[in-house]
UniProtKB/TrEMBL annotation:
It comes from Bailinhaonella thermotolerans. PANTHER family: UPF0232 PROTEIN SCO3875 (PTHR36456). Residues 22-53, 143-168 are annotated as: Disordered. InterPro entries: DciA-like (IPR007922). Residues 37-51 have a biased composition (Basic and acidic residues). This is DUF721 domain-containing protein. It holds the Pfam family DciA. Residues 145-157 have a biased composition (Low complexity). It comes from the Bacteria.
Amino acid sequence: MMAEEAERPVLSGAALAREKLAQAKADAARRGQLPRSEPRRRAAGPRRDAGDPQLLGRAIADLLAARGWEQPAAVGNVFGRWKEIVGPDLAAHTKPESFEDGEVIVSADSTAWATQVRLLAATLVRRLNEELGEGTVKRVKVRGPRLGPKPRGGLRVTGSKGPGDTYG
């Protein structure tokens, strides 16, 4: 046996570990203790019966899934966190109005901010899809400030309107 050990190359590191593991498996097989072919299952804790109380978060998630409210709840979450998603500057001048068929309608408080959001539409779609899941938002539609009907009253000038009124 000494001659065999002297002839064998000296192993180190991973090769030594593999050899020792192979020897241990061979010894176990000789004793009739074969290693497991399947990995052990981890205990997930005590099993719950159907009548046991559930964790609140899990109960809400199950309810949303059962009613098909997952996407509307996620959209509501995004609308509620609008400021942290788009940043405080943009959020101060815009607000999300609705989401339907992959389209988010955003209202802006001025035409300048409406133009800014239109320029950022592709970035906004990407950012919203990061929050809601890829492909959820397909486009962003922007509405400028809402100017209602012009008030009528005694102080209004009637007649033709246009450049002639201003320049004389």
